[in-house]
Design brief:
- It is a single chain.
- This protein has 18 helices and 18 strands.
- By secondary structure, the chain is α/β, with parallel strands linked by helices.
- It folds into two domains: 284 residues, UDP-N-acetylmuramoyl-L-alanine:D-glutamate ligase; 192 residues, TIM Barrel (Alpha-Beta Barrel).
- Strands 3-2-1-4-5-6-7-8-9-10 form a ten-stranded mixed beta sheet, with helices on both faces.
- It is elongated, with a radius of gyration of 25 Å.
- The protein binds the ligand Cc1ncc(COP(=O)(O)OP(=O)(O)O)c(N)n1, the ligand Cc1nc(C(=O)O)sc1CCOP(=O)(O)O and magnesium ion.
- The site of magnesium ion has 4 residues, from loops.
- This is Thiamine-phosphate synthase.
- Pathway: Cofactor biosynthesis; thiamine diphosphate biosynthesis; thiamine phosphate from 4-amino-2-methyl-5-diphosphomethylpyrimidine and 4-methyl-5-(2-phosphoethyl)-thiazole: step 1/1.
- GO terms for molecular function: ATP binding; hydroxymethylpyrimidine kinase activity; magnesium ion binding; phosphomethylpyrimidine kinase activity; thiamine-phosphate diphosphorylase activity.
């Protein structure tokens, strides 16, 4: 069933922002948009002529109709036209959060000031917002101006952005997404910030000069709401929303005599529309004073000689490794998770030699120092390893590098390093490793593969003989398995059947 997203917002008679933008963005991501209209604004591409707030009775009737039949997974809030509306909506949200079996997530785009500069609210709602609504908000998506109004922090640099997000947390907000569309820092770039207590994400891309940008704030917040409704983690919703807006800005056109609306072009499929994940050590990271600033982002690892890595066996000792190679598997990983394994170095040395003997691609998981020491073909690393491994040394030694990714954000982060292949996981639930909260499913894999078509791609996690054909049908270049081989009643038969099953 489609996930239901309510949008509580104003109607823009010009069709560019508010409810109109919200519906288009939510539907673009496959959500179902339900609407609770707070005001019938009279506006066009030139500006706002009237607000026309609805009464609390009209608001109540919309809530009642939806609550009895179509409860929301995510509630996105835009324009609240007056203090009574703020108080009423806050009371409703408090009730839903306390009483619904599945409490809704609340995404709030504080439309305190219209992009045209005209205020859309009838009175000073800021104190009421802070006291009643913000403590119920899971994700707030203000622009720089709205951030300044709500937190009192003037965004003169990265540390002020951090301070502002802290101020939101102190007001009871769960996560802050501060949009940098109006912020020219670094010059010529558009940098967005997302934070939950203890964790922050920065995204950036060259500023897209698009005069027709009406409705970007509403569309951004609705895209995030839709993605959260689909079960994407916050960091993935963040990157998808930004890609959606970039895509829309690039093709937006004039409608009317003034500022036209951002375009709505469906789920973002073009890598060129995705922002860069800003890492400490990159030039953008240095501009933003991200730490540690002295760990350079190393890119362009030795390219793979083929896009199709085929059946990829992930095993924990050299007996299995040899059996796989003897039976024709050309991509194998030695994955020994216990660093105290007494003969670890010996096993890695043997694995390297077996790879050479069978002219196969043998990757060493985790132990990159020993992999370099013993002249391995390649290493496979996880996202955490990117913060600690000596990537300069791995690249200098000419080793291939495979990187794990779990979702859009990690995929775009891995893309910064231009590894030899990208692995997407966990596609299905698995008992080999705790992947709670990181199961991607086939539908996401269908997005990952074409986005990253420049790389050899690998799917991993819970893949067996039955699932292998549908995984291979996504176009992924390799299917990686542990248990489908090591726990098979007849491993040799399993290898042969898996090889057949992934031929598309
Ligand atoms: C092909 C492939 N993909 C993903 C992984 C997982 O690697 P990582 O995230 O480093 O986790 P551990 O395997 O170290 O637990 C992999 N090993 N191989
Ligand atoms: C080692 C590993 N890494 C994963 C990831 O998603 O990064 S899933 C996984 C386990 C794969 O084992 P099986 O084929 O037995 O499900
Ligand atoms: Mg690892």
């Amino acid at each position: 069933m489609k996930s239901i997203i309510w949008t509580i917002a104003g109607s823009d008679s010009g069709g560019g922002a508010g409810i109109a933008a919200d519906i288009k963005a939510i539907e673009s991501f496959g959500g179902h948009a339900c609407t609770i209209i707070t005001a019938l604004t009279a506006q066009n591409s030139m500006g706002v002529e009237a607000i026309n707030a609805v009464t609390i009775e009209v608001l109540e009737s919309q809530f009642a109709a939806l609550e009895s039949d179509m409860p929301a997974k995510v509630i996105k809030i835009g324009l609240l036209a007056n203090i009574q509306q703020v108080e009423f909506v806050a009371a409703k949200l408090a009730h839903f959060k306390a009483n619904w079996p599945l409490p809704p997530l609340v995404v709030y785009d504080p439309v305190a000031v219209a992009s045209s500069g005209e205020t859309l609210t009838e009175d000073d709602i800021i104190p009421t917002l802070k006291n009643t609504l913000l403590p119920l908000v899971d994700v707030i998506t203000p622009n720089t101006q709205e951030t300044q109004i709500l937190t009192g922090h003037y965004l003169i640099g990265p540390s002020a952005v951090r301070d502002a997000s802290e101020a939101f947390f102190n007001l009871g907000v769960g996560a802050a997404v501060i949009k940098g569309g109006h912020w020219d820092y670094p010059q010529g770039y558009c940098v967005d910030y997302c934070a939950v207590p203890g964790q922050e994400y920065w995204l950036g891309n060259e500023k897209i000069i698009a005069p027709h940008n009406h409705g970007t704030g509403c569309s951004y917040a609705s895209s995030m709401a839709a993605c959260l409704g689909l079960g994407y983690p916050l960091k993935d919703a963040f990157i998808l929303a930004k890609a959606y807006i970039n895509q829309g800005l690039k093709v937006s056109v004039r409608i009317g005599q003034g500022i036209g609306p951002v375009a709505h072009k469906g789920f973002p499929h073009d890598l060129a529309d995705f922002p860069t994940v800003i890492e400490a050590g990159s030039w953008l990271g240095k501009e933003l004073e991200l730490e540690p600033w002295d760990r350079p982002v190393v890119a362009e690892f030795s390219p793979s000689e083929t896009q199709q890595l085929g059946l990829y066996a992930v095993v924990d000792n050299c007996d299995w490794l040899k059996l796989c190679l003897e039976n024709g598997i050309k991509t194998v990983q030695l994955r020994i998770k216990n660093s105290d394994t007494p003969n670890l170095a010996e096993q890695i040395q043997t694995a390297v030699a077996l790879g050479q003997q069978f002219q196969a691609r043998v990757y060493i998981n985790d132990h990159w120092q020993l992999a370099i020491e013993h002249g391995a073909y390649g290493v496979h690393l996880g996202q955490e390893d990117l913060d600690t491994a000596d990537l300069v040394a791995i690249k200098a030694a000419g080793l291939k590098l495979g990187l794990s990714t779990h979702g859009f954000y990690e995929m775009l982060r891995a893309h910064n390093y231009q590894p030899s292949y990208l692995a997407f996981g966990a596609i299905y639930p698995t008992t080999t490793k705790d992947m709670t909260g990181q199961i991607q499913g086939l539908e996401k894999l269908k997005h990952f593969v074409p986005l990253m078509k420049a790389y050899p791609t690998v799917a991993i996690g819970g893949i067996d003989l039955i699932r292998a054909p549908e995984v291979a049908a996504t176009g992924v270049g390799s299917v990686a398995v542990v248990r489908a081989i090591t726990e098979a009643a007849d491993p040799l038969q399993a290898i042969s059947q898996l090889q057949q099953a992934i031929k598309v």
